[in-house]
Design goal:
2 copies of one chain form a homodimer. By secondary structure, the first copy, chain A, is α+β, with helices and mostly antiparallel strands. Helices cover about 20% and strands about 20% of the residues of chain A. In chain A, the strands form 3 sheets. In chain A, strands 1-2-5-8-4 form a 5-stranded mixed β-sheet. In chain A, helix 1 crosses helix 2, helix 3 packs across helix 5 and helix 4 packs parallel to helix 5. Chain A is globular. The N and C termini of chain A lie far apart (about 40 Å). The C terminus of chain A is likely disordered. At the A-B interface, helix 3, helix 4 and helix 5 of A face helix 3, helix 4 and helix 5 of B.
């Protein structure tokens, strides 16, 4: 298995041929929506759910034995179960654009999605009309190969155990014909940095200084006596990392299921602890290739490992890029004065 | 969530109340069997399969919706599909001991198991009678709270990408009432040490010098241009990490399923790449507690994280303890002269 360590030109999931990402967020609400579409084709897709407390929509049809073979978009949203309405907004927007699975004289966009819990992050929450459908439509309108990381989209109000969370992305060019990438909204029970330090768990996999370049923590015996999120003592269920991994190589839906499931290794290496009973950790996998021909064994090995590395890097970049907000409950990683930096 | 960083007195899975482990191996065959039983009770158990190429027996009954609530033993074996016969030997041995699920005047031991592929490791392989049933019976006879690590049992003929594999174990005392542990036979596609170095991927989690004390590799950009196992160029499918995680705390079968599934994070953090399409990576989770009462939310969080840490450490210890054999295709980690140490 040969590998480069070269990110694509944007170091974003949109380096994968055809992918566009749109974000919309409400800074008062401290929540938002991220949507991923392919500019030309529908996508082959599946998903793997390993967290104990998932919130999802249209994930049954992603199972390999189900008939639906291609999807139109994937939505990542804040807002807990309310955020699932973001899929409705994206579905309506795609319909207006003439996208969707054609059946007779009508068409139905297929829009799986997953949410994270950001309701208790200090944002304004007294809405009368569920805002997520509108945020979904807005996110779709901004879909582009360029998008910002950090406190954007589904990561706008995200928190980890010790630091502000966010939206992250990364890519890797495996060879001329194959790029992989990852997109993650990080709101985990666990930490993304080592205890009392700013070293990312994902540091061994960092390319250049894409998330600060501090390198790995040299200590051992890490991971014991650690901190998990307890923003509100009565409610620790404010969690979940939701992610997409992608490639422009051809793969079958069953292969996408394998990649989505095992790409959770990228979460495991970047967040400690990961996959807690109160995380709803889910990874979607998409292929933008127009055919659904199976990947070769060699390609599949490379895609599995490449997407997994991208996901770890995307998670670290989410936290690295987060921007402070006056009502934040936790500090951002990239504060002005590192000497002031204190977290448990 | 509070945590100690204290292993149990043996730093083995048998620090979990009631557990016994037995090994049997054939040094010519370069293969063997490991069996885990509880000295008094049956066990609550489930499993999670994340690898692409599993070899298993009696794993359907471990799914939470299936009726069988307790099991008698778990078998880890070399021998690829032939090794599944080890379960037959253990089943026969348990029957002789009067163990098993009683139905009228008979009883049936419930013995799930999983195998790894060690057929092309240089061992003698021209047997006429499948040897694994006998190895299973022998392993059961040796079951004890004390057992050796390294080239023992199911790890006897194991190989990783660059170093000899083996059988490993580790434990962690979470509090007076709760110990967790892990047992792993490591035969992975991927590496357990960083490229060209002896630093274990699992080093951040090492307690004391339980696997050499070298600490983490200080480099970044690791994981690219790496080596995967290619013992025989025509056949890379010589793989799989099979493991058990355990606790003496009470848990439901559904909770055991969650723990087994997400404890794969322990594989992800100790092996790179992990969960390849040609790995059959599987983790069993057992509770030795006589009741099947659900664990509290706090306990479950601690068990998930604790077992995951133990599994990473058990994987590193497997390779650290492996012993050389004249027909080995790969070096052991712990060679006499580190200057001679060379691997890709």
């Amino acid at each position: 298995m040969k590998f480069s360590k070269t990110p694509g030109p944007r170091n974003l999931i949109t380096d994968v041929t055809g992918l566009l990402v749109g974000n919309a967020q409400d800074t008062d609400l401290k929540s938002g929506v991220t949507v991923l579409i392919c500019n030309q084709h529908t996508m082959t897709a599946s998903c793997g759910v390993l967290g104990g407390a998932p919130g999802t929509r249209e994930t049954d049809l992603l199972q390999p034995e189900k008939s639906v073979s291609r999807i139109d978009a994937i939505v990542l949203s804040g807002g807990s179960a309310y955020g699932l309405d973001a899929c409705s907004g994206v579905t309506a927007g795609l319909h207006k654009m003439g996208r969707g699975y054609t059946i007779g004289s009508t068409s139905v966009p297929i829009v799986p999605g997953a949410i994270l819990f950001d309701l208790l992050n200090g944002g304004h929450k007294n809405w009368n009309i569920n805002p997520y459908s509108k945020l979904g439509r807005q996110a779709l309108k901004t879909a582009s190969t360029h998008f910002e990381l950090g406190s954007m989209g589904a990561g706008a109000g995200a928190l980890t155990a010790t630091l502000k969370g966010g939206l992250g992305s990364a890519s890797l060019v495996l060879d001329e014909a194959m790029t992989v990438g990852a997109l993650a909204a990080v709101n985990s029970v666990g930490t993304v940095t080592t205890p009392g330090e700013r070293h990312f768990w994902a540091a061994p996999f960092e390319i250049g200084d894409e998330f600060g370049g501090l390198g790995p923590d040299p200590r051992t015996e890490l991971g014991y006596n650690f901190t998990t999120k307890k923003v509100h003592s009565e409610n620790e269920r404010c969690n979940t990392t939701i992610a997409v991994v992608a490639t422009d190589a051809s793969m079958s839906k069953a292969q996408a299921k394998h990649v989505a499931t095992v790409a959770h290794a990228g979460i495991a290496r970047a967040i400690l602890p990961s996959h807690m009973p109160s995380d709803g950790d889910i990874v979607f996998c998409v292929s933008t290739h127009p055919s659904q021909a199976s990947a070769s064994n060699d390609s599949l090995h490379a895609i599995v490992h490449g997407t997994t590395l991208c996901l770890s890097r995307a998670i670290a970049r989410a936290i690295y890029c987060a921007q402070p907000h006056p009502t934040d409950l936790l500090p951002t990683w990239n504060i002005q004065n590192p000497k002031k930096f204190k977290h448990p």
